Amino acid sequence: MKITCIRTELVSSISNVSRAVSTKSTIPALEGVLLKAYNGKLNISGYNLEIGITTDMEATIIEEGEIVLSAKLFLDIVRKLPQEIVSIETDDRMVTYITCGQVDYQIVGMSSVEYPDLPNFEKTDGVSIEAKVLKDMIRQTVYAVSENTAKPIYTGSLYELSEGTLTIVAIDGFRMAVRKEQTDCDSETAFVVPGKTQLEVLKLITDDEEKVELIIGQRHITFKINSYKVISRLIEGTFIDYKSTIPSEEKTMLVINTRKMIDSVERMSLLNNERVQSPVRCKFNNNRIHLSCASAVGRANDVIDNDIIGDDVEIGFNNRYMLDALRNTDTDEVKMILNGSVSPIVIKPVQGDSFLSIVVPMRLANES
Hints:
The protein has 368 residues and is an alpha+beta fold. It is built from six helices and 26 strands.
């Protein structure tokens, strides 16, 4: 293989692809990136047997070929090169020569034969969606994906295509996030995408892209984002019937300024840390919200004047879970719905149903 290319483009491509590279693997090739130079393009791939990221970039192909190079070393070298035109050449012994201006490196590569094939699957469904819309949908739900591997199905988000609507649902047993958007797809399907995959998709989406294409297979999915493809396995299993977990009653309801509620909960959160997790106590009565938090560190109180419709209620919640839900609403005001002290808190938009967040309450100790 012998090519020349632009250094800044190469750095960007390797940086993005490297996020799918194994840092420690029993297969040495998986700690590298696969370079393939064919048909006027340089293809760069990273793969850790769960997620693969691959991209094509412009390059002058003098001699076609392929090689596997250490991802970290290759990226470190290319970042430090002094000029923009980079020459990369490999010989029969897998030695790779990297030249830029007066600087040259010789590093040992590996045969591409040792690199596992990225998943190649038959498309069963697909949908195309605006990049910014998908970015918002993932960001507003992925925070609720479970980190507990005891139930692998909840370490991913449910993607549900039905009646021209894409719904993304994440749940971890303490909270749930739901986000909906209309699409031009009339498919009826559901699948679970790992949370880690969605985080990689988020990093690759910029506001410049017009569309992201989702290519869906029986056990895998590909996200096509501009010149990049993120290929991931899907999580197999049965996702909870999330609709049945949404309370149907509205015993207590209020519309509140999102920023005002965030600020108040943040003030209460100052008494909590990684070792101390006391619930925020919230009383809704007489058109006032009384917030308090008591921990080994001290005690805090706050009051928000706000119209409240329905029954008085006192409830406790995890400050971090509530803040995650509120910060990801992207609306100036939200509707909060409560059904007693042991029923989940529901957060919705004032108009419509584009998002829904549920926070499970925490048990409150009797105040002294």
